[in-house]
Amino acid sequence: MFRTMFDSDVTTFSPMGRLHQIEYAQEAVKQGGATLGLRSDEHVVIAGLLRQTKKLSGHQPKLFVIDDHMAVSIAGLTADARLLIKYMRTECLNNKYVFDSPLQVATLVADLADKAQSHTQDYSSRPYGVGLLVAGYDKSGPHLFETSPSGSAYDFRAQAIGARSQSARTYLERHYETFADASLEELITHALTALRETAGDTELTAENASIMIVGKDTPAHELAADDIAARLAALGGGAAAEDDAANDDDEGTNENPNA
Amino acid sequence: MAFPMQRELYLPTVPTLTVSSQMHSGLSGPSLGSHGPSGPMAARLATGKQAPVAPSRFSAASSSSAAVTVGSGPKTAAFSPYVLNGGTALALAGKDFCIVAGDTRMSAGYEIHTRNKPKTYRINDKCSIAMAGMQADATNLIKMLRFRIAMYERKMGKPMSTQSLAQLVSTTLYRRRFFPIYAFVVIGGLDEDGVGSVYGYDAVGSFERSTCCVQGSGTSLLQPVLDNQFDFKNHSIKPDELTLDESIDLVKDVFVSAGERDIYTGDSVEMHIITADGVRVETFDLKRD
Amino acid sequence: MQRTQQPIVTGTSVLGIKFDGGVMVAADTLGSYGSLARFRDLRRVRQAGEYTLLGGSGDYMDFEAMLEYVDELLLEDTTLDAPPSYTPRELHQYLARIYYNKRSEFDPLWNQLVVGGVRDGDVFLGYVDLQGTHYEDETVATGYGSYIARPLLREAYRDDLTEAEARKVLEDAMRVLFYRDARTINRIQIGVATEAGGIDISEPFELETDWTVGIRKH
């Protein structure tokens, strides 16, 4: 439907200087279920809105532990993400093997970005159709990175990607100045509130919301469903409270296989 | 080069070297198959001029086998890849507990390298590993195991059972059948029924489950004593099984005795006491002479 | 491919000791060719990165090759927001992996290394050798030093040893080695690593010795 003369392979620039295939790959990220992350000076919290691909299937996971000090959430093609996750886990274990220490988050993100970039310059390959939020804590403190199919990677205080993430970003932008000193509890509350913005008509529940935490003296782990349910109950209110935020993309359909 | 000669070459005690070049290039690093270190890290590890991609050892042997004989030059010394660092490790299994212990002395010949290098490694809430033999091989082995265990746990979403670990250690050791890992492993833990279990190995992966196993330089001193005092072997009337506290005291006693007679055992002992509550670590001092 | 099957130009003992707030490493500057005192100015106490001291005995070219591997690693260490570079503890582990892998290829780097440094309050002193054997301790010695000097270092070591005391301990031990080890020279370097001062490796200097017959104590 968008077809142009310049999008049949990833290595051809359009006269406007664009690489259409990469933009399409980034579109796959936008179509993926929303995920967001935010950090204080001690912790990083990532949250994702899980999708049910079929009525009879369970919710597809989109948050994954990489190592004790690192976790990721994904938006886009789950199958592509699995490959990257395995790569990241292996690199972390390699670092442990060679240096007996956890891999620096920024180092791995740089390697990951290089890996994505190499798929944007090769005629016969396709870019990864997935964006990652990488949360980690290392000797230089807490980190939150976003990587994208284009091979770029950015360092964030808070960020949201995926379907309807603009509303979550609006919420995060409004509150980010308070995040640095926020307690872990406050971070989780912010994460759930922002995530609710992306849920639209769907009610946020312990089944479709997923949260992971990593930080100082806190190994990466998923928040138990009971904890999420309790916090959602404490938040009160069903659907998104602030609906003024602009939605910049299409709604993710339930049949979408992307997480 | 014929196979029997190669095998002889890899025996730990080989005194001199006749090395065919390129023969060993495939044996670098952790041989972990598709899960092994790869990518940038592996490239960093391969410090040499050639990539650590290996032909099979047998095909390599036929390719270029110009023998290099050692013995000339300003200072004559033969390289041995093996060194014995001494020390004693053991594990005892009771009805609902397990004790894994090792001394912390690390020696080479008459030199004590360090007095504080534990031989015990905690794997998870249900088991620990202890190793004696060559420290470099043992450390590398535990690193390879930790790599595989972490991959297993991420993939399966549960800790590795003691029984699975026992099999993993065996296959890992056997992979290096023709260039053995000079480490003598003993695993202690609780099995899936919560019963204490001990697995003992030789350098190339043969293993058996038992209730009491000693490895390392104190083996010949301690194993018969424990057979008698813990397993009550050759007793016509079997006393009651030892309780956890009695077993801990027995471990202390036998390590003190080994320290008296074996120059490679001493300094202190690190002991992992494994029960349904998890792993508790205790240490106690031995004589430093 | 030709491999190191015996060392050629060799350096003798390297000594290391921790003190309150830092580590100190000493070695002489002789490169021996068998029993020939061949080179008189080989620097065997070196710096790797900003935080780590490396002292090496054994084959001098292998030592230099190892320094190149480490420099290569540190050069690679440029990333998004430039995280702090490798700690002495990490480099020690890295070297242990390098030396173990080389020994497993039957292509050893024929050295015994002393690795020392301070990072984020972590005072580290460790040892690596050609078989991949490695450990950390309060005192470390290689070569003949492990028999002759290590007991002196162990005896002298205290948690609260000052830098000046540590220097005296190392100089005395190096002097004893000069008296007894035939592969030494009376010209040494001492490298110091502290949190505040980083790495400071002295120029070679001569130790005072006393060869008067009959009064030699060591």
From TrEMBL, chain A:
PROSITE patterns: PROTEASOME_ALPHA_1, PROTEASOME_ALPHA_2. It comes from Thecamonas trahens ATCC 50062. It is found in: Cytoplasm; Nucleus. Keywords: Cytoplasm, Nucleus, Proteasome. GO terms for cellular component: cytoplasm; nucleus; proteasome core complex, alpha-subunit complex. InterPro entries: Ntn_hydrolases_N (IPR029055), Proteasome_alpha (IPR050115), Proteasome_alpha-type (IPR023332), Proteasome_alpha1 (IPR035144), Proteasome_asu_N (IPR000426), Proteasome_sua/b (IPR001353). Residues 6-28 form the Proteasome alpha-type subunits domain. Pfam families: Proteasome, Proteasome_A_N. Belongs to the peptidase T1A family. SUPFAM superfamilies: N-terminal nucleophile aminohydrolases (Ntn hydrolases). GO terms for biological process: ubiquitin-dependent protein catabolic process. Residues 239-259 are annotated as: Disordered. The 26S proteasome consists of a 20S proteasome core and two 19S regulatory subunits. This is Proteasome subunit alpha type. Residues 241-253 have a biased composition (Acidic residues).
Automatic annotation (TrEMBL), chain B:
One of its GO terms (cellular component) is proteasome core complex. Keywords: Cytoplasm, Nucleus, Proteasome. It is found in: Cytoplasm; Nucleus. CDD domains: proteasome_beta_type_1. Residues 21-47 are annotated as: Disordered. Pfam families: Proteasome. GO terms for biological process: proteolysis involved in protein catabolic process. Residues 24-40 have a biased composition (Low complexity). Belongs to the peptidase T1B family. Component of the proteasome, a multicatalytic proteinase complex which is characterized by its ability to cleave peptides with Arg, Phe, Tyr, Leu, and Glu adjacent to the leaving group at neutral or slightly basic pH. The proteasome has an ATP-dependent proteolytic activity. Component of the proteasome complex. This is Proteasome subunit beta. It comes from Thecamonas trahens ATCC 50062. The lineage of its organism: Eukaryota, Apusozoa, Apusomonadida, Apusomonadidae, Thecamonas.
TrEMBL record, chain C:
CDD domains: proteasome_beta_type_4. It is found in: Cytoplasm; Nucleus. One of its GO terms (cellular component) is cytoplasm. The keyword Transmembrane helix does not apply. Keywords: Cytoplasm, Nucleus, Proteasome. InterPro entries: Ntn_hydrolases_N (IPR029055), Proteasome_beta4 (IPR016295), Proteasome_sua/b (IPR001353), Proteasome_suB-type (IPR023333). GO terms for biological process: proteolysis involved in protein catabolic process. Non-catalytic component of the proteasome. Belongs to the peptidase T1B family. This is Proteasome subunit beta. It comes from Thecamonas trahens ATCC 50062.
